[in-house]
Amino acid sequence: MRQAGRSLPEYFDVRGDGSILDAIRVPDRATEITLQPVRRYGVDAAILFSDIVTPVWAVGFGIDITPGVGPTCDRPFRSADDLQRLRPLDLDADLGFQTETVRNLVAELDVPLIGFAGAPFTLASYLIEGRPSRDYAKCKALMMGQPELWHQLCERLADLAIGTLTAQVEAGASAIQLFDSWAGALRPEHYREYVFPHSSRILSAMGDLGVPRIHFGINTGELLPQIAEAGADVVGVDWRTRLSDARERTGGTVALQGNLDPALLLAPWPVLEREVRRVLDDNGGHPGHIFNLGHGVLPQTDPDQVKRVVELVHDIGRAGR
Amino acid sequence: MRQAGRSLPEYFDVRGDGSILDAIRVPDRATEITLQPVRRYGVDAAILFSDIVTPVWAVGFGIDITPGVGPTCDRPFRSADDLQRLRPLDLDADLGFQTETVRNLVAELDVPLIGFAGAPFTLASYLIEGRPSRDYAKCKALMMGQPELWHQLCERLADLAIGTLTAQVEAGASAIQLFDSWAGALRPEHYREYVFPHSSRILSAMGDLGVPRIHFGINTGELLPQIAEAGADVVGVDWRTRLSDARERTGGTVALQGNLDPALLLAPWPVLEREVRRVLDDNGGHPGHIFNLGHGVLPQTDPDQVKRVVELVHDIGRAGR
After folding, report:
1. Is residue B44 annotated as a catalytic residue, yes or no?
2. What is the interface size between A and B, counted as CB pairs within 8 Å?
3. Cross-chain residue pair A240–B186, CB shorter than 8 Å
4. pTM
5. Which end of chain B is more exposed for a tag (fewer CB within 10 A), N or C?
6. Dihedral sign, CA of A68, A70, A76, A78?
7. Structure confidence by residue, pLDDT tens digits, B1-13
8. Domain A4-318, classified CATH 3.20.20.210, yes or no
């Protein structure tokens, strides 16, 4: 469960105020924050505490994470000149803190560590819009109006993703997750033309490293076949699409991850229990399912609710469903 | 094209600053604003200038439309006591201005006028959240945690929708559109249990009046069968779902409306032209298609781009596709 930490009091104790990047770039803090939800919830894997913009930030594009807003750029990506602000990664100099965090974690954890990166569409949307967007209007206008520049941008972003993921795997991460959280804003033909080649290149490079690859987005009901085809071993399914439908659309070739609506963690326990069982029942006992939320934990979530869900899923799993 | 006006300079001349409700409640202004896009673009129908919150505002719930934000409530809906703030409509006293606007329009227009209302889920989301939401967390928590109260709220909202729509039809509107813009935030089982009965009741009442019924939402790819089944003659399809897929999911029982991505109006004309043709080609010449955007016109849209799209669609239509 990504961002599981942000509903935990112990998270805010360690993280402090200011940009989340101030916690990400300090290995001791990032290590501790990664461990917190594993300790509290007993989940089956840890996910590195970082952010999808970390590599873009590390090469000095000029991006920050503004508390209460999200990723923001003072000078958004506008023209070919801005490509220079996305130079190749120097893994040691730029992401040494992350490598150290991963090594610390692998030494401490007795569950697998999942590394991750942002996919080109989602990152490009922040770079072009300069902040979170509802309509991706500037992003799509550049994508459709200047396709060469769009592809150049995505190539650089794919290189950054391959760089950070490779570093994480080499430092000991057991699996990787590629977050294309907002790709569901595109129709299938546009995804195919403008996004698929880049995400596919990243996932293919990870396949060469031999690690399992999870490919995640929300609102991706119509894109699931392509998201699977791009090279995923596991496809994230938000709560809108039933697992049974997702299984059909992906042709049974991949495992699925999801798909509880995170808002349900705010419902009373009997409702939440019913809904967890609904997801598992809809999965029909298929072994290729990683139970998870369909998106990040909402900040106002009561950690005890998360804990009960983890216990319930473990109980049902042990009972041999 | 709903909200077509908000990219027009003549709209801002008439509307002035302040809440959009100040323009909606003055028949001469609302009439003029409704006519503007018809005059400028030569579209085949007009849609009443109003807002989905108009009836809720008119009965004194305490809702406004804050410029740059959207619908806001100082005292959001929290408990059964708040039901009292949703008294039944007195059509003449509460919505007399709207009836006058519709009568004016029907007298002036030589194309059909489409009336509309907000559907219970989308309205409830504003009333409960108190403002536009990304996650509908409070709304879903109330829906799942207090289902009786949820259904009582939706019954009142359905009554308001039936009231305003009936008044619009009796004053001369030729068709109605039910906007459940945000219903796509729900998974199919939840839509069925918490939303379908209420939207279905509204659409059934409109069927009794004998007017064509358009049922619209975005992100509704997984809900299309139910949105059709709720009683629509026409189902809106945003740009994420291809018309060919939507046709399959709705079993060919309804006409479809859409499905150009509004962001494409910001792309250069050759791209926009290609994309309009893509939508029409995907429709495959099926007669049950109302060409439209998949969602509202973005404010930064150049009106000339809209005009060219209308002309292109008309040209292709006349050529007998």
Report:
1. no
2. 92
3. yes
4. 0.96
5. C
6. negative
7. 556 677 898 998 8
8. yes
